[in-house]
Amino acid sequence: MNIDLTGIKALVTGASRGIGKAIAREMIESGATVAVHYNRSREGAEELVAAAEGASATFQADLNEPTQCADLVASVVEKFGGLDVLVNNAAVALESPPDEPLENCVGKWRTTLNVNLVAAGILSREAIAVFGRSGGGRIVHIASRAAFRGDTPDYMAYAASKGGMVALSRSIARGFGGQGVKSFVIAPGFTRTEMAEEFINKYGEDMAMRDMALDRMTEPDDIAPLVVFLASGLADHATGTSIDVNAASYVR
Q: pLDDT averaged over consecutive 10-residue blocks of the chain (252 residues)?
């Protein structure tokens, strides 16, 4: 099956590296015009857009700041003349040991929830408003297996934020389906990205792969094609669903 996204205008958050970069690249190669969002990794975002040689463009925003989330969607719509697909991919995973000082713990929880969940909610809210003027659209949320099976004690905030993302997606699917809005979750397990390096460096790759049924760790390129499929409209009646991509390390 050859999926053609020509004419689709998409925003992918956290698209300068890792899973987001693979998603943005795959969407561009499938014909979409992609807003490649970044916060600090400007070089990676610009390299991706330069290689695309098309109408795609980079957009900077700190998703820890709610107003910048809303401004990001507005900037994309102004630049592209509309928006058809939002991919909520950007995330942080901050280690927070249970015995660390309360002040440090609270700060990490706030940042994690702001970036991983509040930003996704605001971006979705703004995108839904745009979709309402154009007859509908699609949102793909990149959550985690941690939303369903939990995480280690050091990463409870991350797991909680991803659990909230699943509830957000289901609420959007049920609440806005009549307006043509479709919402999906992809829940990866350990994926070989820079964000996962901290855990791997601390606990070892064998620990990360211990529960996997396959013989290699999931790569960003294993996830990107699914996003293209969901963005295409070929799976609209799966709205509200969550798709696991975790090498059978957690099976529901």
A: 94 97 97 97 94 93 98 98 98 95 97 98 98 97 97 95 98 98 96 79 77 92 98 98 95 90
Whether 230 contacts 169, CB under 8 Å? no
> How far is residue 124's CA from residue 6's CA, in Å, rounded to a whole number?
22
Q: How many CB atoms lie within 10 A of CB 49?
A: 20
The C-alpha atoms of residue 20 and residue 41 are separated, in whole angstroms, by: 12
Full DSSP string of 156-191 = HHHHHHHHHHHHHHHHHHHHHGGGTEEEEEEEE-SB
Q: Encoding tokens for residue 74?
A: 């507005």
| Strand, helix or coil for residue 213 | coil
Neighbours of 176 (CB within 10 A): 20
Q: What's the pTM?
A: 0.95
Catalytic residue, chosen from 38, 155, 158, 250, is: 158
Residue 32, pLDDT score: 97
Tell me whether residue 155 is one of the annotated catalytic residues: no
Under a CB-based contact definition with an 8 Å cutoff, are residues 183 and 240 in contact?
yes
The pLDDT value given to residue 127: 98
